[in-house]
Amino acid sequence: xxxxxxxxxxxxxxxxxxxxxxxxxxxxxxxxxxxxxxxxxxxxxxxxxxxxxxxxxxxxxxxxxxxxxxxxxxxxxxxxxxxxxxxxxxxxxxxxxxxxxxxxxxxxxxxxxxxxxxxxxxxxxxxxxxxxxxxxxxxxxxxxxxxxxxxxxxxxxxxxxxxxxxxxxxxxxxxxxxxxxxxxxxxxxxxxxxxxxxxxxxxxxxxxxxxxxxxxxxxxxxxxxxxxxxxxxxxxxxxxxxxxxxxxxxxxxxxxxxxxxxxxxxxxxxxxxxxxxxxxxxxxxxxxxxxxxxxxxxxxxxxxxxxxxxxxxxxxxxxxxxxxxxxxxxxxxxxxxxxxxxxxxxxxxxxxxxxxxxxxxxxxxxxxxxxxxxxxxxxxxxxxxxxxxxxxxxxxxxxxxxxxxxxxxxxxxxxxxxxxxx
Length: 422
Prior knowledge:
Layout: E1 7-15, H1 20-39, E2 42-51, H2 63-75, E3 80-83, H3 89-99, E4 102-105, H4 106-117, H5 121-147, H6 158-197, E5 201-207, H7 213-221, E6 238-243, E7 249-254, H8 264-269, H9 271-279, E8 282-288, H10 294-307, E9 315-320, E10 342-346, H11 355-368, E11 370-377, H12 383-391, E12 393-399, E13 404-411
Parallel strand pairs: 1-2, 1-3, 3-4, 5-7, 5-8, 8-9, 9-10
Antiparallel strand pairs: 6-7, 11-13, 12-13
């Protein structure tokens, strides 16, 4: 795909089933694919939906539908065909032979977006590693075809030589990047150990891409994480401290957004990043309930949390963008299980609606990471009372003959000066 020059594309998807729900899903799938393409400076000029019981093994779409797609491209002056799936190397080659046009699948579009969004060295390494592993499968898929250029037993043709050269180059680069990823993983592990030593609770902020995670973190923490109404704005996990009015602390970790059919190589490459979700104490899940497909998006996030072993963690579910919701059907989510470990709040990060309640819920999580105490402090150490007031919560305070009685809570990380009393 060209980086700067705009391209015009025809998009295609498959609809399995003929009922109304199948119609809605295929339309939404194309809408999401169009958004992805737009992030790559590609204009959608036409779409095709083919109803099939299953994808065609050779062409994904039927051969006749592909020819129709190519004819549409000629009429609409499109120069690229985009497919709403990850095509196999063989399918790509056969489609190219049939229509003689540039062929791009959903995975390649997502790779391109990630490559454009990556700004830190860590993000660039992770994206390049995923891209190389994806390219390696494409080389492998061409192996049989290129080997026929060899000219017979005991000889090596130019095609096969180039294939092996490319494969060796990619494998060397992958090995180098994997060593860098080990360093990144080790560094992140060290950072988490430091947080654990200080007893600072962490909250992983997760959700479908463009659900408003970064905006919520910015609002809560008065931070400046880059946040726009665009897909995959956050690739690198960004940690921000939330300090309650009582002085208790939480670390909010903004993570990469999930999406349907995220290429497996990206998931593997971002393993070090996603460890932040696995190792977090709590989960704050953000859902954009103004999106018509929010129920499906909730399911996709749930599946990812299950894969990461984080689905059972205490969770705060924020239903974001209620000011843009098309109806009130989302309110049924507010009546789901609500207890100490599961809470759902309706909010709008842009309007500020519900954000005080979100902050209050997070503060409650911070208090769960605090130690409760009832102590009598000698008057010689009266300065400890001020220390507690600044860093913790005092529920009861009384001045007696034997000393100052204090009952309250303080973060474990800040309880050191009270150890002799505790």
